[in-house]
Write a structure and sequence with these properties.
Helix content: 40-55%
Strand content: under 5%
Order of helices and strands: HHHHHHHHH
Number of helices: 9
Structural class: mainly alpha
Largest sheet: none
Oligomer: single chain
C-alpha cells in the first residue's frame, strides 16, 4: 500500500494564499496567470460542493473541509459542521453499527480492533445522542481517535468512509480508548 499524502482540500485557505503568492506578478508570475488564478479560486469558493468523477469517487479525495448539511453531498453553511465524514441522514444506526462490526472482523490489525470497540455501543434514545447518531464523525475527531489508538490517521479516514462512522460512534470509541479500552 502506498503512503502518499492526500492533496489539500480545494477550500484550504492556506493553500489558496500560497498559490496566489506564487502566481503574483511581483513573485515572478504573469499578470494573466494571476487573474486566471483569482477567477479559479472564486469559482471554487462559489461551488456548493465538489463532485468527483467516477475514477476518483472510490478514493478518499473528497473535500474534507466542505461543510456538512445532513444530505450527504458535502454542501452547506455551518462552520461548526465542517470537515465531516460523508454521511447520509437519516440513517438506520443499528444497521450502520452492524456494518462497522462486520468490517472490524474482516480487517486485520489495529484498525479492525478499534472498530470492534463498538461491540458494547448503546444506541441513544433521545436528545443530543440521537443528533450525534445522524451526523458523520468529524475528521478532527477521527484524527484524535487515530492518535489514541496509535494508528495512522489516513487508515482511520479510509475505514470511516467505507462504513461512515457517526459522531456518536467515534465518540464511543474515543471514550473507550481513553478509559483503557483494548486497541490491539
Amino acid at each position: 500500500m502506498s503512503r502518499t499524502a492526500l492533496p489539500a482540500p480545494l477550500h484550504d485557505k492556506a493553500m489558496q494564499r500560497q498559490l496566489r503568492a506564487r502566481v503574483h506578478p511581483d513573485a515572478g508570475g504573469s499578470h494573466e496567470l494571476s487573474i486566471w488564478t483569482a477567477a479559479l479560486l472564486e469559482h471554487v469558493e462559489s461551488c456548493a460542493d465538489v463532485v468527483l468523477c467516477r475514477a476518483h469517487s472510490t478514493q478518499t479525495t473528497q473535500d474534507r473541509s466542505a461543510p456538512y448539511t445532513g444530505n450527504g453531498n458535502g454542501s452547506g453553511q455551518s462552520g461548526e459542521d465542517s470537515a465531516r465524514v460523508p454521511f447520509e441522514a437519516p440513517v438506520d444506526h443499528v444497521a450502520l453499527l452492524i456494518r462497522a462490526l462486520d468490517l472490524g472482523q474482516e480487517l486485520l490489525g489495529p484498525v479492525g480492533n478499534v472498530l470492534l470497540l463498538l461491540s458494547d455501543y448503546q444506541q441513544a434514545t433521545s436528545g443530543r445522542g440521537q443528533l450525534a447518531e445522524q451526523r458523520g464523525a468529524s475528521y478532527k475527531q477521527l484524527k484524535y481517535l487515530a492518535v489514541l489508538a496509535e494508528i495512522p490517521a489516513r487508515e482511520v479516514y479510509a475505514v470511516a468512509e467505507r462504513v461512515p462512522l457517526s459522531q456518536a460512534m467515534a465518540h464511543h470509541i474515543i471514550t473507550t480508548l481513553k478509559n483503557g479500552g483494548n486497541r490491539t
